[in-house]
Structure formats: structure tokens, C-alpha cells
């Protein structure tokens, strides 16, 4: 009896358009958020996720059938998708929201991704995504998506090995005490940490090829999801400016300064 054919892996990588990590953040005049009229780029953790998906295909060769990237964002977010396509992804999905619309919250993003996964005719075996976005630093979407899908999850991954024949993944993840190794069955969600890899720069030929790769478009209404925020930001202000410190000649003078500041030193 011939062994049954192993289904090739389909990888989905969610990416986010965020304020570039090198930009100095400023509060907008209305104090409703930060000034968004600055340079944007792909969220750095998502770049790592795209890179890892491409590296998996390079290691596993013909075992990876497709790498698809997806973003939820305004029309300009298509630039982020083109960057991911130039890095090596095959196709993309853009869930378009109007310009100026607040960035969707983690639960809304997870529900949107679930709907997209359910609509993929060839199925999704592995979702690789950044552990957090540098704008809201929530770090929740991957865990919520795994819960909604009832899939295995491995967060904060610093090393990923996938065995297509057994549909299993060995993931080394970073924890407070050091490293933890998990073995999970696909399908699963992996969120990437900084030390997983170093993303490549897209070459000019690949940038030109990316312009011809397909991008499928949806609206939240097409997917039947509601992206209305559950939280309301009352006010955003900049932190107080740091005040320079001072020097003291001895311990007695230090104690005096502490008492003047209302701090009572405790005896050892």
C-alpha cells in the first residue's frame, strides 16, 4: 500500500503598518493620540515573522506550498504588504479600513484573522506573527487567535523547527527563567521574538517582482466582523521631562537630601 501523500504547508503571516521604530513619538495637538503624520513601516516583530516563514521554505524546500501575508489597515497599508512580498511572500490579503480609522484592537484583529483562515480553500497549517506591535505593545493577538481557533500556540519564539512529515513543530521560546522547548502539532500559531532571526533587505529585482504578486482585498463588512473599538482613550500626554540629578559630598548630606524630599531611610 502506498503511503498517503503529505499535504504541503500553507503559512499565513499577519503584518501591521506602524509608525517607524526610529521616529521620535509626539502627542498630537488634540491629545487624542500620537502624531501619525510621520514615516510608517512594517512592525519590526512582523518583519521577523515574514523572514522566518521565508527561511522555513528555504529549509524545507518543496514542503512549503505558499506564504501569504495579511494586513488590516488603510489604503497606504498596501505598501507594507508589498514589502513582505518583496521579502519572499507569494500573495497577500488587504482588509481595508478608511484612512484615519483607529487601529483595530487585538480581539477584533484575532476575529478578523479567524474569518480569513476559515475562508482559505487550501487551508492554513501555520500562522507566524509578531509577538506584539510597537505602537500599542498589547502582545495579545496571537494568543487570542489561537484560542478562537482552538489551535496550539507557542509565543515568544527564538527558534522554530517544523517537521512536515509529522506535521509537528519544535519551538524554543524565551521565558523569564531562560528558555523553554515546546513540541506542538499543526495547525498552530507562533509569535516571534527579537532573537529568532534578522530580517533580510529586499533586493531591487524582488521589489519589482512584488508589484506583480496578487493582493486580495476585503472590507470588514465582507468578513462579517466589527472593528469598533471597545476602549476609549480619554487623553494622551507626554511624560514629564527628566530633571537632572545632583551630587552629595557624603552620606550625611545624602540623608539630609532624602529627608527634604520626604523620604525616610529605613535602618538595615
TrEMBL record:
The UniProt entry, under InterPro entries, shows: ET-Flavoprotein_bsu_CS, ETF_a/b_N, ETF_b, ETF_beta_N, Rossmann-like_a/b/a_fold
- Key word Transferase present in the record? no
Q: Which residues form the Electron transfer flavoprotein alpha/beta-subunit N-terminal domain?
A: 31-227
Listed under GO biological process in this entry are: amino acid catabolic process; fatty acid beta-oxidation using acyl-CoA dehydrogenase
Cofactor comment: Binds 1 FAD per dimer. Binds 1 AMP per subunit.
This chain's function reads:
The electron transfer flavoprotein serves as a specific electron acceptor for several dehydrogenases, including five acyl-CoA dehydrogenases, glutaryl-CoA and sarcosine dehydrogenase. It transfers the electrons to the main mitochondrial respiratory chain via ETF-ubiquinone oxidoreductase (ETF dehydrogenase).
Name-wise, this protein is Probable electron transfer flavoprotein subunit beta
Q: Which organism is it from?
A: Pisolithus tinctorius Marx 270
